[in-house]
Structure formats: structure tokens, C-alpha cells
Amino acid sequence: MLFRALVHTFKITALLCCLLFYGCGNSSQLVLIKQVRLYDGSTIREQVDVLISDGVIISIGEHITDAAATIVDGKGKTIIPLLVNAHAHVHEPLHLKESLSQGIGTVLDLYTSSEKARQLRIYNDSTLYATYYTSGPGATAPGGHGTQLGYAVPTVSHPSEASLFIRNRVDDGVDYIKIIREPLRTTLDFKTIGALIEAAHQNDKLALAHISTLDDALAVSELKVDGFAHIWFDSAMDEEQLAQLATQKPFVIPTLYVTKKLLQYVDQKELALQHLHFDELQQEVYRLHQKQILLLAGTDAPNLGINYHDGLLEELRLLKASGLSDFEVLKTATINPAIAFNFLENQLIKENNKANFLLINGDPTSDIESITKIMGIWKSGTRIK
């Protein structure tokens, strides 16, 4: 009797773990999506068939048949890679679940504690949560931006401390390094930033920088930073400055939505902070785009009340209003982050890859608004919607 009760308890516990953590989605059946438009992360193909078996894409082509497959009508629909939020701050697993429920399959965390990062990485094996990448705690000066968050964070005071800081982050298992240059508070000097970038690259880690002014962006770009979290908002580039950035080509996560909210707050409170008008800021984004500088969509959630799901859509709308085509906007939230952060192979929709994609009612390559019409979500080979 006791043994039977223990077995019964074990089965219930296993079932609950499966439902809550993995979702128990069916990845073993054959699924055939017929006559669908496909944006695979590289090209757009019209009216193709996509066959999925055991969660793996086994065939993409025309006139595919399989009598055992469940048929999904793809007419009028588009398959696209899972979306990516390239700038967020995740505080709990629910935020990753909330993201995936709206088609965001990857979230790039750009500042958190080492302990929080360890806790959240556990959910990367789940089909119910967005995949999580993180910088862990960013490099900041004592009393600098990031030290006001209510938990202890490591700081850097001198170039001689850069190697140890980077080594500690690598030991923590971070995916990339964030460096903070924010003159509104005590901030890192450029020699220290240069040492941090060099140490990051020596450890095969990307280095991206939080900046808010054009002069800082230009100076840090000369130090070979890989990308910028945020776009400057104090002044506009002249042609020489634009040419400098075009030569260095750091990727840029403009975070237009949160910046728009910030500038509105500054104006409402009549704060003494020099800034561009928002339409001028959008023009800066478009000028970067014209120079083929890689743009990534990120929200900086949950700052200024931005959520983890449709906040990304607001960002995409602002990028479109900046002059990008619908297709280029879609790239900022799909393939561009994968190129910038080196997870391209996982993001591409191709034969022998796991099924990681959205089925959209409509064509987001020509109408970004249709991205809200999600008919299906596949993650790690499992359909979760």
C-alpha cells in the first residue's frame, strides 16, 4: 500500500512538473504546413510546404505529402523566426513566459545580478519560456548607473581591475559583457572602458555599451565596442561623425519606445536635460540604417512601465515610423539580433533544425502590424499555441 501510494505521488509530481515547466506539448507527431509563405531568416519563399517530425523540420519544398501528417493550411499565412527582444531586464520566470506567449522566443537581458541570472537560465530547457541570454551585472563605476537598483553589484574603478571583472563574469557564465558610460551619474573613464572591451574580446565575449550622448558613442566606438544599448539623444550626428560610425559599424539597439517615454517625462517635469526632439531622434536611427549599421529591436522592459509582450510591437512601430520598411523592421526583431549576438544558427528556419517559428495570419514582411495575428508558436520543436 505504501509503495503504491509513493508511486502514485511520484506520477502526479512528474505530471505537474511536465505541465508547469515543459508544457507537455506534442513534438512527436508529424505536422505538414501547406502552401505557406516562409521567411526563413534569409529569404522569402512563396507557397512552400514545411514538414515537421519529432519537432525537427525534415523538409521544406513544394508538393510535399505524408499521409500520416496533421495538415495545417498555410494559405494566407507566413512562417517567420521567433521574435527577439534585444534589450530587457528580466526579474522573474513569468516575464519569460509572458514574452513567449506573444511570440518572443529569445530575450536578451542587459543587466541583472549573478544570482538572478543563474536562476533564470534554468528555464532555457523549457518550451514554455523564452530563451534567456544575459550580461549579468554590467561594468559600472562605484556609485554609477546600476548601483541604485537595490542590490549589491560589482564595480570597476581603474583599468587594472578590468581583467578581473571580466574573468568573474565569464566564471558566472555570462553570454556577453555590458559596459556603462552614463554621465548623469559617476561613470567609467574611457581608459577603463577600453580595458574592459579588450578583456571581453580576449575572453571571446561581445562588449556592448550603455550610452546616452553622441560624444560618448563616438569615443567608445573608437575603442572597438561591438554595439550600443540605446541611442544617444543629446545631439545629432554631422556627416563626419556618421562616417566614423559607419566605419566602425557597432550594432545599435535604439530602444525608441522607452526613450520616447523618457523624453516626455523630462519635458513634463521641465528637467534641465538637453535632448533632440523625438522626430530628430528617429532621423538619427534612419541615417544609421542607410549606412547599413545593424539595428536591433529592444524595449528595456520593465523600465517606465513597458511590458514584456506587446511593448516590442510598439518598438517596431516606432522603427517603421523612422523610415524602415516593414521587412527591415521585421529583421530588427528576428535575424539582426541573431547576427549581432551570434546565435544565427538557432534562429534560421531550415531543414534539420528544431522547429522554432511563428505562424502568422497575414504577411509581416509587408505589414508589420500582422505580427499580432499569431496562429501558432513552435519552440524547440513543440507547438505551444
TrEMBL record:
It comes from the Bacteria. It holds the Pfam family Amidohydro_1. Keywords: Hydrolase. GO terms for molecular function: hydrolase activity, acting on carbon-nitrogen (but not peptide) bonds. The keyword Hydrolase applies. InterPro entries: Amidohydro-rel (IPR006680), Metal-dep_hydrolase_composite (IPR011059), Metal_Hydrolase (IPR032466), Metallo-dep_Hydrolase (IPR051781). Coiled coil: none annotated. The keyword Hydrolase applies. Residues 94-381 form the Amidohydrolase-related domain. PANTHER family: ALPHA-D-RIBOSE 1-METHYLPHOSPHONATE 5-TRIPHOSPHATE DIPHOSPHATASE. This is Imidazolonepropionase-like amidohydrolase. It comes from Pontibacter virosus. The lineage of its organism: Bacteria, Pseudomonadati, Bacteroidota, Cytophagia, Cytophagales.
